[in-house]
Design goal:
By secondary structure, the chain is an alpha/beta fold. It folds into two domains: about 1-255 and about 460-485, Aldehyde Dehydrogenase, Chain A, domain 1 (3-Layer(aba) Sandwich); about 260-440, Aldehyde Dehydrogenase, Chain A, domain 2 (3-Layer(aba) Sandwich), CATH 3.40.309. About 40% of the residues lie in helices and about 25% in strands. It has helices at about 1-10, 45-65, 70-85, 85-100, 100-120, 160-170, 185-195, 215-220, 235-250, 270-280, 300-315, 335-350, 400-410, 425-435, 475, and strands at about 10, 15, 20, 25-30, 40-45, 130, 140-145, 150-155, 175-180, 205-210, 230, 250-255, 260-265, 290-300, 355, 375-380, 395-400, 415, 415-420, 440, 460, 460-465, 475-485. The strands form six sheets. A seven-stranded mixed sheet has the order 15-16-17-14-13-19-20, sandwiched between helices. It has a six-stranded mixed sheet with strand order 10-9-8-11-12-22, with helices on both faces. A three-stranded mixed sheet has the order 1-5-4. It is globular, with a radius of gyration of 23 Å. Residues about 1-10 have low confidence and may be disordered.
């Protein structure tokens, strides 16, 4: 761990055309568990760096797109192997800069390594079709080709896994990449880039440009040399990106907000329902787009559920992300902490009962700590049940029966993930088919999906093809239909 941490304490630059290039200035990356701990200094690029990165990617594209798929596979496998070999080191770095616990950090790094290895195989599995034509003597071939130069914009809450599940398929299918990570968490992105830079991938195929979203992100989205944009982040920014991409004819893929429901029915196993609700709502400090902040509970089990949740939450240890006994680390930033506490105040003002937590915490190190907040006696129309908070704040909505629970679950502009706790197979099957979400969990937390299956939602949560697994090819390739006369 000390080797990498000593590196990230230095100044770190963008990677453009195989060279490390400084921007105009540097910005400090501060540990949210300890505000006196500077993780490192990372360069701030501008539009000129995007121009250079796009030019490099454009020049590298023809050879990379038509080159050996075995070379692509070998490079991605090498990247995945190194990530997995250094998972504890990289996990500690991730925990230090983002604030999720050390076990969660290691788990996220492990997933990143697995993703690269999965797509090392996908390089060799990009199948097409050969069909007969309706015209005698004519053959039809359907093939997939890379889109071109793609811009990847990633969020701060999963600073290595989300970049991995965009970068790996982009490269696997022959695209060239300009990668813009979240300005809040550049260290994990830089560490991943450094590994990629030594994988054997030619200069210009992969480029890193760090900096502010309003500067770098806008320049990337608006650049005429970019053929596709894959974005994960806020709903407002995502919608603006979509409009810009439509105007310029770019392919676009968006993963945005979530206000995910967790339904608990009267017949549920109480202990399991409480545990999965705590996991869904509060772990990773609630900073997951798949987190469940709406706990929809039928009236028969409601009183027992509230009391059991309060007892379980009392055992949650909030602390330094690197602490060995920490369950939940700090909120990621001052702005996010202020937003979370503001929503606690909003919930109180709307008439919900603050059943537990919701306080700013003072611990042995100065950081962005707060106790997880649980509201009871909330209504579906309250802002705390309509708007994405993106923090450790959850509210319980009492409903009469399954039918009202399903209706409440669907009464939202988002549709990413949804869960149900029940021992009734009829309700479980009906919920899977009728809840308006891209991912459904039965007796499992709403947060947490495998790396080899599609990720994404509906309504205001997602736009465009799914991410991850074999479905990633839908965005990172384009289909060509060719006819041949015998």
């Amino acid at each position: 761990m000390s080797k990498l941490l000593s590196k990230v304490s230095q100044q770190h630059d963008n990677l453009i055309n195989g060279e490390w290039l400084p921007g105009a200035s540097y910005s400090a990356n501060v540990n949210p568990s300890n505000l006196f701990d500077v993780v490192g200094q990372f360069t701030q690029g501008d539009a000129s760096h995007i121009d250079a990165a796009v030019a490099a990617a454009t020049a590298a594209f023809p050879a990379w797109a038509t080159g050996s798929v075995q070379a692509r596979s070998d490079a991605l496998d090498k990247i995945g192997t190194e990530i997995l070999a250094r998972k504890k080191e990289l996990g500690a770095l991730l925990a230090r800069e983002e604030g999720k616990t050390m076990p969660e950090g290691i788990g996220e790094v492990t997933r990143a390594g697995q993703i690269f290895k999965f797509f090392a195989g996908e390089c060799l599995r990009l199948a097409g079709e050969t069909l007969p034509s309706v015209r005698p003597g004519v053959g039809v071939e359907i093939t997939r080709e890379p889109v071109g130069v793609v811009g990847l914009i990633t969020p701060w809450n999963f600073p290595i896994a989300i970049p991995a599940w965009k970068i790996a398929p982009a490269l696997a299918f022959g695209n060239c990449v300009v990668f813009k990570p979240a300005d809040l968490v550049p260290a994990s992105a830089w560490a991943l880039t450094e590994i990629i830079s030594r994988s054997g991938i030619p200069a210009g195929v992969f480029n890193l440009v760090m900096g502010r979203g309003r500067v770098i992100g806008n320049a990337l989205v608006q650049h005429p040399g970019i053929h596709a944009i894959s974005f994960t982040g806020s709903t407002d920014v995502g919608r603006a990106i979509a409009l810009e991409c439509v105007k310029s004819g770019k392919k676009v893929q968006l993963e945005m907000g979530g206000k995910n429901p967790q339904v608990v029915l009267d017949d549920a196993d109480l202990n399991r329902a409480v545990e999965l609700s705590v996991q869904s709502a509060f772990y990773s400090t609630g900073q997951r787009c798949t987190a469940s902040s709406r706990l929809i509970v039928t009236e028969g089990i409601y009183p027992k559920f509230i009391e059991a949740m309060k007892l379980r939450m009392a055992r949650i240890k909030v602390g330094d992300a690197l602490g060995h006994d920490t369950d939940i680390g700090p909120v990621s930033s001052q702005n996010q902490l202020e937003q979370d506490l503001a929503y606690v105040a909003i919930g109180k003002s709307e008439g919900a009962t603050l059943a537990a937590g919701g306080e700013r915490l003072k611990l042995c190190t100065e950081g962005f700590y707060m106790s997880p907040a649980l509201f009871s006696e909330s209504a579906r129309t309250m802002r705390i049940n309509k708007e994405e908070i993106f923090g450790p704040v959850a509210s319980v909505i009492r409903v009469k029966n399954y039918e009202e629970a399903l209706d409440t679950a669907n009464d939202n502009e988002f549709g990413l993930s949804a869960g149900i706790a029940t021992t009734n197979l009829k309700y479980a099957v009906h919920f899977k088919h009728h809840v308006q979400a891209g991912m459904v969990m039965v007796n499992l937390p709403t947060a947490g999906v495998d790396y080899h299956v599609p990720f994404g939602g509906r309504k205001g949560s997602s736009y465009g093809p799914r991410e991850q697994g074999t479905y990633a090819r839908e965005f990172f390739t384009t289909v060509k239909t060719s006819y041949t006369m015998a």
